[in-house]
């Protein structure tokens, strides 16, 4: 199982990106939101991933944030929602909007996504109402874009210490904002731990 990819963005298209890791190019399907968050070709990127395996295919799907990946898992657990439809929903609605739509049972909001009719939208909000509470949403857009470099390593360190993905990303983003983009890994982790402890 591949949990995430960290490498260089080699190319992007309408529905996927190619990320080069150690000389190997991984084709990663993604929502338009994740593709927009990746930044320019040639830059370092990190994406959370989900491996889909069927009888006649293997497919890697990437996400800018762990909350988007968690929603993908929930959505594909609903009958009639495959990977393509789940990515269409995640392209139309960011995780916070999807959370609100499910909580409010707003099927019209979910039906804004391509390929989602009223009946499927109703099934999605009904089936996910009790399951969506476990997803932790990042407090800001900055926390939802996967960090790179020292900040990505700092998030990884925080996760190893038992913090949830959104907590780790939020604390590291706040620390990086205070210290500046040239901050060392050690400094980032120390300040992020202090910020996380205050919450």
From TrEMBL:
<comment type="subunit">
    <text>Homotetramer. Forms an RuvA(8)-RuvB(12)-Holliday junction (HJ) complex. HJ DNA is sandwiched between 2 RuvA tetramers; dsDNA enters through RuvA and exits via RuvB. An RuvB hexamer assembles on each DNA strand where it exits the tetramer. Each RuvB hexamer is contacted by two RuvA subunits (via domain III) on 2 adjacent RuvB subunits; this complex drives branch migration. In the full resolvosome a probable DNA-RuvA(4)-RuvB(12)-RuvC(2) complex forms which resolves the HJ.</text>
</comment>
<dbReference type="GO" id="GO:0006281">
    <property type="term" value="P:DNA repair"/>
</dbReference>
<dbReference type="GO" id="GO:0006310">
    <property type="term" value="P:DNA recombination"/>
</dbReference>
<dbReference type="InterPro" id="IPR000085">
    <property type="entry name" value="RuvA"/>
</dbReference>
<dbReference type="InterPro" id="IPR036267">
    <property type="entry name" value="RuvA_C_sf"/>
</dbReference>
<feature type="domain" description="Helix-hairpin-helix DNA-binding motif class 1">
    <location>
        <begin position="73"/>
        <end position="92"/>
    </location>
</feature>
<dbReference type="InterPro" id="IPR013849">
    <property type="entry name" value="DNA_helicase_Holl-junc_RuvA_I"/>
</dbReference>
<dbReference type="GO" id="GO:0005737">
    <property type="term" value="C:cytoplasm"/>
</dbReference>
<dbReference type="GO" id="GO:0009379">
    <property type="term" value="C:Holliday junction helicase complex"/>
</dbReference>
<dbReference type="InterPro" id="IPR003583">
    <property type="entry name" value="Hlx-hairpin-Hlx_DNA-bd_motif"/>
</dbReference>
<dbReference type="Pfam" id="PF01330">
    <property type="entry name" value="RuvA_N"/>
</dbReference>
<comment type="function">
    <text>The RuvA-RuvB-RuvC complex processes Holliday junction (HJ) DNA during genetic recombination and DNA repair, while the RuvA-RuvB complex plays an important role in the rescue of blocked DNA replication forks via replication fork reversal (RFR). RuvA specifically binds to HJ cruciform DNA, conferring on it an open structure. The RuvB hexamer acts as an ATP-dependent pump, pulling dsDNA into and through the RuvAB complex. HJ branch migration allows RuvC to scan DNA until it finds its consensus sequence, where it cleaves and resolves the cruciform DNA.</text>
</comment>
<keyword id="KW-0067">ATP-binding</keyword>
<dbReference type="GO" id="GO:0000400">
    <property type="term" value="F:four-way junction DNA binding"/>
</dbReference>
<dbReference type="GO" id="GO:0005524">
    <property type="term" value="F:ATP binding"/>
</dbReference>
<protein>
    <recommendedName>
        <fullName>Holliday junction branch migration complex subunit RuvA</fullName>
    </recommendedName>
</protein>
<dbReference type="GO" id="GO:0016787">
    <property type="term" value="F:hydrolase activity"/>
</dbReference>
<comment type="similarity">
    <text>Belongs to the RuvA family.</text>
</comment>
<keyword id="KW-0378">Hydrolase</keyword>
<keyword id="KW-0238">DNA-binding</keyword>
<feature type="region of interest" description="Domain I">
    <location>
        <begin position="1"/>
        <end position="64"/>
    </location>
</feature>
<dbReference type="InterPro" id="IPR011114">
    <property type="entry name" value="RuvA_C"/>
</dbReference>
<keyword id="KW-0233">DNA recombination</keyword>
<dbReference type="Pfam" id="PF14520">
    <property type="entry name" value="HHH_5"/>
</dbReference>
<dbReference type="InterPro" id="IPR012340">
    <property type="entry name" value="NA-bd_OB-fold"/>
</dbReference>
<keyword id="KW-0963">Cytoplasm</keyword>
<keyword id="KW-0547">Nucleotide-binding</keyword>
<dbReference type="GO" id="GO:0009378">
    <property type="term" value="F:four-way junction helicase activity"/>
</dbReference>
<keyword id="KW-0234">DNA repair</keyword>
<dbReference type="GO" id="GO:0048476">
    <property type="term" value="C:Holliday junction resolvase complex"/>
</dbReference>
<keyword id="KW-0227">DNA damage</keyword>
<feature type="domain" description="Helix-hairpin-helix DNA-binding motif class 1">
    <location>
        <begin position="108"/>
        <end position="127"/>
    </location>
</feature>
<dbReference type="InterPro" id="IPR010994">
    <property type="entry name" value="RuvA_2-like"/>
</dbReference>
<keyword id="KW-0347">Helicase</keyword>
<feature type="region of interest" description="Domain III">
    <location>
        <begin position="152"/>
        <end position="199"/>
    </location>
</feature>
<dbReference type="Pfam" id="PF07499">
    <property type="entry name" value="RuvA_C"/>
</dbReference>
């Amino acid at each position: 199982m591949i949990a995430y990819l960290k490498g260089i963005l080699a190319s992007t298209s309408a529905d996927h990106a190619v990320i080069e890791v150690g000389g190997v190019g991984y084709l990663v399907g993604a929502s338009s939101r994740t593709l927009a968050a990746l930044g320019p070709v040639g830059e370092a990127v990190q994406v959370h991933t989900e491996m889909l395996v069927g009888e006649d295919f293997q497919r890697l799907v990437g996400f800018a944030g762990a909350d988007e990946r968690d929603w993908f898992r929930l959505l594909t657990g609903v009958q009639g929602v495959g990977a393509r439809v789940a990515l269409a929903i995640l392209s139309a609605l960011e995780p916070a909007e999807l959370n609100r739509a499910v909580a409010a049972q707003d099927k019209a909001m979910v039906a804004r996504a391509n390929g989602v009719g009223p009946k499927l939208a109703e099934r999605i909000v009904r089936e996910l109402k009790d399951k969506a509470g476990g997803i932790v949403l990042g407090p800001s857009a900055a926390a939802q874009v996967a960090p790179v470099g020292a900040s990505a390593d700092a998030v990884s360190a925080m996760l190893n210490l038992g913090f949830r993905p959104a907590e780790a990303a939020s604390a590291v983003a706040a620390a990086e904002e205070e210290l500046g983009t040239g901050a060392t890994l050690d400094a980032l982790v120390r300040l992020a731990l202090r910020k996380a402890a205050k919450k």
